[in-house]
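Subject: Protein record for review, amino acid sequence with backbone structure tokens
Why sent: The fold of this protein is of interest and is recorded here as tokens.
Notation: Tokens come from a learned vocabulary of local backbone shapes, not from coordinates.
Attached in line: The record itself begins immediately under this heading.
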Amino acid sequence: MGYRLENKPVDLGGLRQLTYVPSQKAGDVYRFKNDAIRVFKDGEDVIDEDTARYLTTISTDRVLLPRKLLFYNNAFKGYTMKLVSQKGAGKRIISTPKRELIDAIEVVEEDIYALSQRNVLLSNTGVGHTLYNGELYLVDPSKYRILDLGDSENLEKLNQYHLHLLLSELITTELRKNSFPSSSINHMREIMDLKDNDQSTSDYLSDLIDGQKDIKQFVKKL
């Protein structure tokens, strides 16, 4: 039977593999028309079909979710997702102007709220599963899980905490690449750890770097 996208046969031959994909643990990713398509490798531990189908019903902007499911001879083999522009992929979070960075984080926080309302637990949100091009994208939903919860408030706090840990790691990784001294990097990590669980990361960073152009300038003054 070959490949089909939902119920429509598709030819995946000659597709161009996307280079921005940070991890090969969730299959290979190619450009497919106006989308990206992720094709699982044999033997991988990947998202199950029911979870992927559920995620197709949720609308998000920066947390990339499956859109249509891919099958091969009736076996679930992948999914399409939003195609993210590689333009600006060399940008750095620590040198993004404060207002632009806060705006970018707020959009992800709104996505996390929407996902938490639908009982989705975000996991596998490490540095290697993100893309930053002036906007922050979480690109790998392969480990997301659906929890049977009556109250989404605690789940949202957990998901927002995962985002905060991710941003802390992204910031310290970039500082390290920019040859900041270990003392400054450790100090910045400690400051990030001081955020109250009831405060959003966007609000915390906005207050933290108030009066500075960006995170890079803030850390220089520590």
User: Anything to note?
Assistant: The mean pLDDT is 91. The longest strand covers residues 75-82.
